[in-house]
Amino acid sequence: MKKKRNRKQQQLFTAFGTVLLFGLGLFFLLFILSVVVENDGTEQQEGRVLSEDVLAYRDTIEQELAKSNQESLAPLVLSVMMQESGGRGDDPMQASESKCGEIGCIEDPEESVAYGIAHFLRMLEEADGEEDVAIQSYNFGAGFIGFVNENGGAFSEDLAVEFSQEQYKKVENPEIYRCIRPESEELDACYGDIQYVEAVYSYLPAAQEAFKDK
Length: 214
Known about the structure:
Number of helices: 11
CATH architecture of the largest domain: Orthogonal Bundle
Helix content: 55-70%
Order of helices and strands: HHHHHHHHHHH
Strand content: under 5%
Distance between the termini: 79 Å
């Protein structure tokens, strides 16, 4: 009788162990899946979602680009606007500095879009169609184009850092330049945004979808 009882107990323990292992395996699988989903959602929040303010400028941007037969650039320009201002304010393309050399001289959103697009197209032409260089030059200024040409002719983030460092050393009052990123402060590269190209491109898939949905 004892042997039979022991055998039954062993069978019960085995069955219990199997159920326990299965339950633990299922728990860890669900936990991993929840982390993946959560991270994916975080990525969306951190850089790829366009604001409603920016989406409201789709028609204006497309119509302005149509004047130069450059409508295909509309998603890219929309991405630039998202990085510049999120579509907020009277100068959503943050084009005042390009036009006047100081912030705030443009107070009309339509003027901002028109001038911002004209400036971007100039950068693109001067950069011989190299979008990466044109995008970074929209942030740094046209001087970056010559700097790239003098240093191999191809865009890289290392060149962006080097240019920013050089320009930052030249400014009379460095305190007027806010270090946008911790990396910029560590590198003494607080002139402009050294990761501007990457930031703009992070919005591009959503911008392309936005124009498909029109």
